[in-house]
Amino acid sequence: VVEDDPDIRESIKDALEDQGYRVATAVNGRDGLRSLGQMDRPCTILLDLMMPVMSGGEFVLALRQTEILATIPIIVVSAWPDEAAKLQDQTQGYVKKPIELQGLLDAVARFCAGDATEAEVP
Amino acid sequence: MATPKGAAVNILLVDDRPENLVSLKAILSSADYRLITASSGEEALKIALREDLAVILLDVVMPSMDGFEVAKHLKKIERTSRVPVIFLTAVATEVRQIYLAYSAGAVDYLIKPLDTAIVRMKVAVFVDLYLQRREVERQARILRENERREYELRLAELRVASDNRYRKLVEGIDHAIAWSMDPATARLSFISRQAERIMGYSAEELSQPDFWARHVPLEDRDRVLQAFRAASPDSADQSIEHGFLAAGRRRLWLHTGLSAVREAEGARRELHGISIDVTNLKRAEEAEQVLAQVVSVLAESFDYETAMTSLAQVVVPRLADWCVIDVTSEDSVRQAAVAHVDPAKAQLARELARRHPVNPDEPYGVARVLRSGKAEIYPDVSDAEWVAKELGIEHPAVLRELGAVSYMIVPLRARGHTLAAMTLVSSESQRRFEPRDLVLAEEVGVRAALVIDNARLYQGAQRATAAREDILRTVSHDLKNPLSVIMTSTERLTKVGVAEGGVSQTKKISDAIRRASQRMIRLIDELLDMERIEAHHLFLDRRDHEAASLVSDSVELLEPLASEKSITIRADMEAARSVRVQCDRNRILQVFANLVGNAIKFTPEGGSVIVRVTQQAGVVLFAITDDGAGIAPDQLPHVFDRYWQARETAHLGTGLGLAIVKGIVEAHGGRTWVESEVGKGSTFFFTLPRANTLDDQPPPPQVV
Fold this sequence. Notes:
Oligomer: heterodimer
Shape of chain B: rod-shaped
Distance between the termini of chain A: 23 Å
Largest sheet of chain A: 3 strands, parallel
């Protein structure tokens, strides 16, 4: 979860952990790229667009230029449908703010169905 | 009898025989007579035509032309018809001869041989008659001469009287000048008294030979002189309209009617003119045209910068040779337009303005007009030193270089505010501005000011629209974040259930909901505050408060936030013990919450925040210092703008905090500013007016 708003970041994290996912968080794009270098490859990235230091758009651009990480599915979480539409070709999903939890969980499940079950096993 | 006045009387003696002439001369020899002789009829006629004769003694019998024939000829000629003729005849006995003689015009006859006494007597009778007639004629001539002289004298008197009447008449018209001139020399022979007043020249100057040529402006000169030359007694009267340079370079407009007359004695012409001063009419006409043109160019553009440029181009050269429009914006003055009859000098004027920008605090010229809102006029700027000082131009030489003659500065005012100043300079045209030029310039100013005002209102409306859009964007985005938290949290609550998650899990989720709700409320409050500040509707409950207590209350409120980051807040109030400020306590606590809150936010863990209070002339100064990262110099001027946020911490607040701080402080009549150095931290300052200690009564709440 790459999101600068701490409350949202935490509430998404908590909600996903409720479902048995393992969740890593980052406060902006650059922080997100750094985290990706230090963790296992995630099944999806939930990405806010308007963030300081490195925005969601810049993050997508940077990510798609790397070999290994370029194929990670990205779900845009934003209050800006227009901005999200600009990244449509490079991203795999869009959840609008304010977030409907079920919609978010469904979007994540599309890419991470196995992971969640796996996580539940141990 | 003796001839009067001693002049001898002419007597003609005509006979073909010389001996007869000799004897006649002998008989009539006298000092009183001048005897002329002729030996033939032809000779006698020639003499008669030449001389004034009293009587002719004419021989009848002569070869080639006889006496009768001579007499017939004499009768036919006006000059000689009345000269008495006495025939000399030897055949007088013949009755027929005598009749013939009378019918030929004789008055008498003498029979040859002549009797001396009879000849003398008869001639004397006719001479006497002649002399009497001559005397009568002389008397009559004298009489005629006297009459004529008297008549002419009377005529002259009448002419003077009529002239006087005529002068009185023309001098009664206070805006017209009557004059007469000899067109050959172009010199005025008469000019009515008003000329001195209307034209401002002395009688002596008016009588200079090239008066007209010297004072009719070049563009009209040929036309006027041509009309003077062409005026003729035989052609119809005509009129021309032309300029006239009066004393002091005042430009007049004259409507001159011309009428040429022939002098009574001869062919000499005299030119009479009446020049009516139509300057006011002409100016009114011109003013109307200028204003019409001004309105039309001003109406062409929504953008007032373009409108001012067009305006300057209309004003030059109709009102002035040089026009500069300086527009105020915020605290500065900017040159919006320059026009000059000479494009090269327009460049120089622009250069001047760039090198010497108008400082709004200057005690002279444009700055003074912008401050006072009152027009200024300098009719004569030939004293360059004085004017340079008055207008704040460093080098009087510049003024001379531009050739300024006269100067006006007009404020452009609308709705009680001076928005700009229009400077009009006369140089090339040499005209001197007069109060009425100022009136017209002010009229132009009023119209131009309306355009600037409308353009600014329009820009203001556009800014307001943009601001509303900003707010909508903020609302839609910033409200959605806490709302997301609330939505996901409530859904989690329903999914998790009490049994599964336990009390601690439920508490954590409901805490998140509470925090998100508080954040939304704060956000909405800030938006509403911002709206009130921008609409100048911020309600202030002003009362006297001790500055120190405001600081300690704020510090107390923020202490918990600081302790979370192990930050110490130090309050330094020594310099302002018991100093009181007049303010709305809650609003000032809000200001502190923002500023100290920010300071805590940007100060690293374990750092410190200092709040200082000091007093200055009439105000109390508050300073909040952090040891955070500082603000980059290029960002400093925008810190108090709406939605400015430190890059690193964007989206932690609404971005309205500092704008609200500024709004609240300014509503109290204070000021805000910031000093910062990257890497060392920032200090935010604000001032509040000191309370009037003599008046402890809290004033009624008021809306600012």
